[in-house]
Amino acid sequence: MPKMKTRKSVAKRFKQTGTGKFLRKKAGKRHILTKKSSKLKHNLSKQVEVSKSDQKRVSRSLPYGLPS
User: Fold this and answer.
1) Of the candidates 7, 13, 34, which has an alpha carbon nearest to the alpha carbon of residue 25?
2) Please, are residues 25 and 47 in contact by the beta-carbon 8 Å criterion?
3) Closest CA to 21 of 9, 66, 67
4) What does pTM read for this prediction?
5) Which phi and psi (to 5°) does residue 25 adopt?
């Protein structure tokens, strides 16, 4: 059976933790930043865990996990 291909767009957007969960960046930090508070912008910079419902979808797109 041939090797499965990794979806490169998914590989660039997510980061895998040691326990196998995936982290993602928050939306809303690209533009129109002048009206957002410093506190909000700081919190948008942090990474959060991918929701449980999307976890399976991301892991299917990365059949061999993410390279370190």
Assistant:
1) 13
2) yes
3) 66
4) 0.83
5) -85, 155
| E strand or H helix that includes residue 47 | strand 47-49
Tokens representing residue 35 in the block: 């009206």
Give the residue ranges of DSSP H helices in the chain. 8-13, 38-45, 52-61
Question: For 2-25, what is each residue's pLDDT tens digit?
Answer: 999 999 999 999 999 999 999 999
Q: Encoding tokens for residue 6?
A: 């990794």
pLDDT at 68 over 70: no
Is residue 14 classed exposed, middle or buried when 0-12, 13-18 and 19+ CB atoms within 10 A define those classes? buried
Q: Residue 14 has what pLDDT?
A: 95
Q: Which amino acid is at 21?
A: K
